[in-house]
Amino acid sequence: MARLHLWIAAAVLALAVPSLAGDPDMLQDICVADTASPIKLNGFPCKANVTAEDFFFAGLKKPGNTSNPAGSLVTAANVQSFPGVNTLGVSMARIDYAPGGQNPPHTHPRATEIVFVLEGVLEVGFITTANKLFTKTITMGEVFVFPRGLVHFQQNRGHGPAAVIAAFNSQLQGTQAIATTLFAASPPVPSDVLAKAFRVEPDQIDAVKAKFK
Ligand SMILES: *[C@@H]1O[C@H](CO)[C@@H](O)[C@H](O)[C@H]1NC(C)=O
Ligand SMILES: *[C@@H]1O[C@H](CO)[C@@H](O)[C@H](O)[C@H]1NC(C)=O
Protein backbone atom coordinates (compact mmCIF):
# COMPACT_ATOMS: atom_id res chain seq x y z
CA MET A 1 0.00 0.00 0.00
CA ALA A 2 2.79 2.41 1.00
CA ARG A 3 4.51 1.45 -2.22
CA LEU A 4 1.41 2.31 -4.27
CA HIS A 5 1.29 5.73 -2.61
CA LEU A 6 4.93 6.29 -3.56
CA TRP A 7 4.21 5.44 -7.18
CA ILE A 8 1.21 7.78 -7.22
CA ALA A 9 3.32 10.56 -5.67
CA ALA A 10 6.07 9.95 -8.25
CA ALA A 11 3.54 10.05 -11.09
CA VAL A 12 1.99 13.28 -9.81
CA LEU A 13 5.44 14.84 -9.48
CA ALA A 14 6.44 13.71 -12.96
CA LEU A 15 3.32 15.36 -14.35
CA ALA A 16 3.62 18.52 -12.26
CA VAL A 17 7.29 19.31 -12.83
CA PRO A 18 7.19 19.78 -16.61
CA SER A 19 4.05 21.93 -16.32
CA LEU A 20 5.91 24.28 -13.95
CA ALA A 21 8.97 24.42 -16.17
CA GLY A 22 10.10 27.87 -17.23
CA ASP A 23 13.62 29.22 -17.08
CA PRO A 24 15.87 27.22 -14.73
CA ASP A 25 15.79 28.12 -11.04
CA MET A 26 18.41 30.47 -9.58
CA LEU A 27 21.47 28.98 -7.87
CA GLN A 28 22.65 32.29 -6.32
CA ASP A 29 21.26 35.74 -5.37
CA ILE A 30 22.44 37.63 -8.45
CA CYS A 31 24.14 36.82 -11.73
CA VAL A 32 24.24 39.90 -13.96
CA ALA A 33 24.95 38.72 -17.50
CA ASP A 34 28.40 39.23 -18.94
CA THR A 35 27.02 39.36 -22.49
CA ALA A 36 30.53 39.90 -23.91
CA SER A 37 31.93 36.71 -22.39
CA PRO A 38 33.37 34.23 -24.91
CA ILE A 39 32.13 31.38 -22.69
CA LYS A 40 29.15 29.59 -24.26
CA LEU A 41 26.61 28.09 -21.89
CA ASN A 42 22.84 27.91 -21.39
CA GLY A 43 22.33 31.59 -20.50
CA PHE A 44 25.21 33.97 -19.75
CA PRO A 45 28.04 33.81 -17.20
CA CYS A 46 27.91 36.29 -14.28
CA LYS A 47 29.96 39.46 -14.47
CA ALA A 48 32.23 40.31 -11.54
CA ASN A 49 31.74 44.02 -10.89
CA VAL A 50 28.03 44.64 -10.29
CA THR A 51 26.33 47.96 -9.43
CA ALA A 52 22.73 49.15 -9.04
CA GLU A 53 22.88 50.31 -12.67
CA ASP A 54 22.93 46.66 -13.75
CA PHE A 55 19.40 46.23 -12.32
CA PHE A 56 18.05 49.38 -13.97
CA PHE A 57 16.71 49.91 -17.50
CA ALA A 58 15.21 53.15 -18.85
CA GLY A 59 14.66 51.94 -22.40
CA LEU A 60 10.88 51.48 -22.14
CA LYS A 61 10.14 55.14 -21.28
CA LYS A 62 9.81 56.41 -24.84
CA PRO A 63 7.55 55.20 -27.67
CA GLY A 64 9.36 53.14 -30.33
CA ASN A 65 9.53 54.27 -33.97
CA THR A 66 6.63 52.54 -35.76
CA SER A 67 7.55 53.74 -39.30
CA ASN A 68 8.01 50.24 -40.74
CA PRO A 69 5.86 47.87 -42.83
CA ALA A 70 4.18 46.29 -39.75
CA GLY A 71 3.47 49.69 -38.16
CA SER A 72 4.72 48.48 -34.78
CA LEU A 73 7.91 48.28 -32.78
CA VAL A 74 8.91 45.99 -29.92
CA THR A 75 11.44 47.51 -27.51
CA ALA A 76 12.87 44.64 -25.46
CA ALA A 77 14.05 44.67 -21.86
CA ASN A 78 15.41 41.13 -21.97
CA VAL A 79 18.80 39.75 -20.96
CA GLN A 80 20.38 41.00 -24.20
CA SER A 81 19.52 44.66 -23.51
CA PHE A 82 19.09 44.40 -19.71
CA PRO A 83 21.78 42.00 -18.35
CA GLY A 84 20.45 42.30 -14.76
CA VAL A 85 17.62 39.84 -15.52
CA ASN A 86 20.08 37.02 -16.23
CA THR A 87 18.93 33.85 -14.37
CA LEU A 88 15.86 35.62 -12.90
CA GLY A 89 13.30 34.08 -15.28
CA VAL A 90 11.62 37.39 -16.16
CA SER A 91 11.79 40.13 -18.79
CA MET A 92 9.65 42.91 -20.24
CA ALA A 93 9.02 44.77 -23.46
CA ARG A 94 7.18 47.83 -24.67
CA ILE A 95 5.25 47.52 -27.92
CA ASP A 96 4.09 50.59 -29.83
CA TYR A 97 1.57 50.50 -32.68
CA ALA A 98 0.86 53.16 -35.31
CA PRO A 99 -2.79 53.60 -36.31
CA GLY A 100 -3.55 50.42 -38.30
CA GLY A 101 -0.29 48.86 -37.12
CA GLN A 102 0.09 45.28 -35.96
CA ASN A 103 2.47 43.01 -34.13
CA PRO A 104 2.17 40.17 -36.67
CA PRO A 105 1.40 36.55 -35.68
CA HIS A 106 4.37 35.09 -33.81
CA THR A 107 5.29 32.73 -30.96
CA HIS A 108 7.58 32.82 -27.93
CA PRO A 109 9.02 29.33 -27.46
CA ARG A 110 10.20 29.99 -23.90
CA ALA A 111 7.57 32.24 -22.26
CA THR A 112 4.00 33.08 -21.50
CA GLU A 113 3.37 36.79 -22.21
CA ILE A 114 1.04 39.10 -20.32
CA VAL A 115 0.32 42.59 -21.71
CA PHE A 116 -0.99 45.74 -20.01
CA VAL A 117 -2.42 48.43 -22.31
CA LEU A 118 -0.84 51.87 -21.80
CA GLU A 119 -2.96 53.58 -24.47
CA GLY A 120 -5.17 52.87 -27.45
CA VAL A 121 -7.47 50.07 -28.56
CA LEU A 122 -6.07 46.70 -29.64
CA GLU A 123 -7.58 43.52 -31.01
CA VAL A 124 -5.46 40.73 -29.52
CA GLY A 125 -5.66 36.99 -29.88
CA PHE A 126 -3.95 33.61 -29.73
CA ILE A 127 -4.60 30.32 -31.50
CA THR A 128 -4.36 26.97 -29.74
CA THR A 129 -2.78 23.83 -31.17
CA ALA A 130 -6.39 22.73 -31.83
CA ASN A 131 -6.69 25.82 -34.12
CA LYS A 132 -9.17 27.62 -31.89
CA LEU A 133 -8.83 31.41 -31.87
CA PHE A 134 -9.34 33.30 -28.61
CA THR A 135 -9.65 37.01 -29.32
CA LYS A 136 -10.67 40.19 -27.51
CA THR A 137 -10.52 43.95 -27.96
CA ILE A 138 -8.66 45.56 -25.06
CA THR A 139 -8.06 49.15 -24.03
CA MET A 140 -6.14 51.31 -21.53
CA GLY A 141 -5.50 49.63 -18.18
CA GLU A 142 -6.63 46.19 -19.37
CA VAL A 143 -4.57 43.00 -19.38
CA PHE A 144 -4.48 39.96 -21.68
CA VAL A 145 -2.34 36.81 -21.47
CA PHE A 146 -0.85 34.76 -24.32
CA PRO A 147 -0.01 31.20 -23.19
CA ARG A 148 3.55 30.02 -23.76
CA GLY A 149 4.39 28.85 -27.26
CA LEU A 150 1.03 29.66 -28.89
CA VAL A 151 0.77 31.83 -32.03
CA HIS A 152 -0.59 35.28 -31.12
CA PHE A 153 -0.94 38.83 -32.48
CA GLN A 154 -2.01 42.38 -31.64
CA GLN A 155 -3.71 44.74 -34.10
CA ASN A 156 -4.34 48.45 -33.49
CA ARG A 157 -8.10 48.98 -33.90
CA GLY A 158 -8.18 52.59 -32.61
CA HIS A 159 -7.83 55.88 -34.49
CA GLY A 160 -4.62 56.90 -32.70
CA PRO A 161 -1.41 55.21 -31.58
CA ALA A 162 -1.49 52.32 -29.10
CA ALA A 163 1.08 50.92 -26.68
CA VAL A 164 1.42 48.02 -24.24
CA ILE A 165 3.88 46.87 -21.62
CA ALA A 166 4.55 43.13 -21.91
CA ALA A 167 5.96 40.82 -19.24
CA PHE A 168 7.48 37.38 -19.84
CA ASN A 169 8.40 34.51 -17.53
CA SER A 170 11.77 34.09 -19.23
CA GLN A 171 14.91 36.21 -19.40
CA LEU A 172 14.86 35.69 -23.18
CA GLN A 173 11.46 34.63 -24.48
CA GLY A 174 12.58 34.13 -28.09
CA THR A 175 10.37 35.39 -30.91
CA GLN A 176 9.50 33.54 -34.08
CA ALA A 177 7.31 35.62 -36.43
CA ILE A 178 5.38 33.24 -38.68
CA ALA A 179 5.53 35.25 -41.93
CA THR A 180 9.21 36.21 -41.70
CA THR A 181 10.22 32.74 -40.54
CA LEU A 182 8.58 31.18 -43.62
CA PHE A 183 9.06 33.88 -46.27
CA ALA A 184 12.30 35.55 -45.25
CA ALA A 185 14.44 32.68 -43.93
CA SER A 186 18.07 32.54 -45.01
CA PRO A 187 18.73 30.44 -46.99
CA PRO A 188 15.12 30.59 -48.26
CA VAL A 189 12.58 27.84 -47.58
CA PRO A 190 12.00 26.29 -51.06
CA SER A 191 8.98 27.90 -52.75
CA ASP A 192 7.53 24.52 -53.79
CA VAL A 193 7.52 23.47 -50.12
CA LEU A 194 5.57 26.60 -49.15
CA ALA A 195 3.30 26.36 -52.24
CA LYS A 196 2.26 22.84 -51.24
CA ALA A 197 1.76 23.91 -47.60
CA PHE A 198 -0.37 26.94 -48.52
CA ARG A 199 -2.13 25.20 -51.45
CA VAL A 200 -1.12 27.89 -53.97
CA GLU A 201 1.31 28.11 -56.91
CA PRO A 202 5.06 28.69 -56.34
CA ASP A 203 4.92 32.07 -58.16
CA GLN A 204 2.39 33.29 -55.58
CA ILE A 205 4.88 32.29 -52.86
CA ASP A 206 7.67 34.13 -54.70
CA ALA A 207 5.47 37.25 -54.82
CA VAL A 208 5.06 37.11 -51.02
CA LYS A 209 8.79 36.43 -50.52
CA ALA A 210 9.58 39.55 -52.60
CA LYS A 211 7.64 41.70 -50.12
CA PHE A 212 10.00 40.62 -47.32
CA LYS A 213 13.20 41.57 -49.18
C1 LIG B 1 33.22 48.67 -11.23
O1 LIG B 1 32.30 49.34 -12.11
C2 LIG B 1 32.16 50.71 -11.83
C3 LIG B 1 31.03 51.24 -12.71
O2 LIG B 1 31.11 50.74 -14.02
C4 LIG B 1 33.50 51.40 -12.08
O3 LIG B 1 33.36 52.77 -11.79
C5 LIG B 1 34.56 50.77 -11.17
O4 LIG B 1 35.83 51.30 -11.48
C6 LIG B 1 34.61 49.25 -11.38
N1 LIG B 1 35.49 48.65 -10.38
C7 LIG B 1 36.38 47.70 -10.70
C8 LIG B 1 37.17 47.16 -9.55
O5 LIG B 1 36.53 47.29 -11.84
C1 LIG C 1 11.60 56.49 -37.81
O1 LIG C 1 12.04 55.54 -38.75
C2 LIG C 1 11.97 56.02 -40.10
C3 LIG C 1 12.28 54.84 -41.01
O2 LIG C 1 13.47 54.20 -40.63
C4 LIG C 1 12.92 57.19 -40.25
O3 LIG C 1 12.86 57.68 -41.57
C5 LIG C 1 12.53 58.28 -39.26
O4 LIG C 1 13.47 59.33 -39.31
C6 LIG C 1 12.46 57.74 -37.86
N1 LIG C 1 11.89 58.75 -36.98
C7 LIG C 1 12.46 59.10 -35.84
C8 LIG C 1 11.75 60.12 -35.03
O5 LIG C 1 13.53 58.62 -35.45
What's the CATH C level of the largest domain?
Mainly Beta
Number of helices: 4
**Count the strands?**
10
Helix and strand sequence: HEEEEEEEEEEHHH
Give the strand order of the largest sheet, numbering strands 1, 2, ... along the chain.
Answer: 1-2-9-4-7
Number of domains: 2
Assign a percent range to the helix content. Answer: 10-25%
Major sheet attributes? 5 strands, antiparallel
Mind telling me the C-alpha Rg?
Answer: 21 Å
Report how far the terminal alpha carbons are from each other. 66 Å
CATH topology of the largest domain: Jelly Rolls
- Tell me the CATH architecture of the largest domain: Sandwich
Bound molecules: 2-acetamido-2-deoxy-beta-D-glucopyranose
Model regions low in confidence, pLDDT < 50 over at least 5 residues: 12-19
- CATH homologous superfamily grouping of the largest domain: Jelly Rolls
Domain Cupin type-1: 58-206
Main location: secreted
GO molecular function: manganese ion binding
Disulfide bonds: 31-46
Report on the structure:
With 213 residues, the chain is an alpha+beta fold. It folds into two domains: 123 residues, Jelly Rolls (Sandwich), CATH 2.60.120; 38 residues, no CATH class. 20% of the residues lie in helices and 28% in strands. The strands form two sheets. A five-stranded antiparallel sheet has the order 1-2-9-4-7, with no helix packed on it. Helix 3 crosses helix 4. The chain is globular. About 4% of the residues have low confidence. Bound molecules: 2-acetamido-2-deoxy-beta-D-glucopyranose (NAG) (2 copies). The site of one 2-acetamido-2-deoxy-beta-D-glucopyranose has 2 residues, from loops.
